């Protein structure tokens, strides 16, 4: 096989202008730190309160009124999230995580200023929009197969006010969706985990891994693990029970599947289906792979069952802070800029029905924390991310906050397209995002986080940098190379206005004056198929 033929797609959001990012050199500590320190409990500020209680009120001898509810979205997760005394996080209102924090003394505060009325929810991102029937599960809807507010043409605009923060606030058989509405549930998704292959491969070994699909299977995620993270392998062919050409590396232009065919950091993911162009028919599927280096190899299958047209889903998120000069995990929770970027990320995903949570903050310190802060090489970066994420063993997606990567020329990068789901028995990985742009534009930072998470969940660039190649989805606008008006062999967002530049998965960001907050129904289809998303 001609190795030069192998496509080496780079899953990243490239820098718009290297000059706009500040370089940062990590400082060497006075003494060596442990390899990894996971610090999720910043030291509380000590205050001398004398004989008064922690709230500063004088002791009147009366028992204070107590606050104790579990309306916090992350209540009962084993971590106190209400921002009160002893809390690990402050992501919920005071007194609303009673199961984890205990009862809180009531605090009499002046009535808050009334919040402005939220904007109505009205988009046509539902895949069944404009079919004459309301499909968003809201009042008067005929069906509940789309996210609330995304079938505006058929349902009209929807009230944007939140009616719930957790499933506990909804009646039986209904769940609280990403926009805070109680909607009917079609049943939760489930994952069946199988190890298909486990053997010692030599260099240039060729092997087949097969799995069976039944009629109730929504999707299958295949994870290839080279136990030596420096080793690599690639996909040769994917065959269906009917011998339909899903993927062949020598006939990739004719293939129905669009894949990133080479391992990154010793891992590779394959998501079937990753386009509505084909579906999984019952029978036996075979994937042929080739090892480029000697290594023990494991191939796993995560078989997902659940609603075919889910109302929504949820994604736990862990932010990891390396030893860069911008902020650590505790500071990020108090940073207005970081929280603004997180809200951008949250809203992009809420618009297609994916709720983020719980959101965790962790630190990576010591030798590895410094190495990851300013990475020099994609392979080394992904190896380090794999080590931290696997040792931490947390659910959901791992997002690493780095300083900058001047030698790599990126704002972010995903270690896999798709990456490995965080499931027991699988080596985990994640994506890295540079903090260097945060102070300049929290909006661009939030879009970058959503972009790299999208790669990890299986989304390709809608348009690649030169405009000659595009993702396999029919409903994502393409920007052709003919839009390269300045002849620099790049199609910029400014050149691609009204041609897909507003999509979150466009190859690069606007330098100024443009938003990239759109995801299409077919992109939603791909993300809902990923084993990391719990759908309902």
Summarize the structure.
Helix content is about 15%, strand content about 20%. The chain has 8 helices and 19 strands. The strands form 5 sheets. Strands 1, 14, 15, 16, 17, 18 and 19 form a 7-stranded mixed β-sheet that branches.
Describe the structure.
Keywords: Signal. This is Peptidase M43 pregnancy-associated plasma-A domain-containing protein. It comes from Lujinxingia sediminis. The chain starts with 11 loop residues before the first strand and ends with a strand. Among the domains are: 116 residues, Jelly Rolls; 226 residues, Collagenase (Catalytic Domain), CATH 3.40.390.10. The N terminus is likely disordered. It is 14% helix and 22% strand. The protein is globular and about 75 Å long. Strands 1, 14, 15, 16, 17, 18 and 19 form a seven-stranded mixed beta sheet that branches. A four-stranded antiparallel beta sheet has the order 6-13-8-11, with no helix packed on it. Strands 7-12-9-10 form a four-stranded antiparallel beta sheet, with no helix packed on it. The chain has 536 residues and is of the alpha+beta class. It has eight helices and 19 strands. A hairpin with a 5-residue loop joins strand 4 and strand 5.
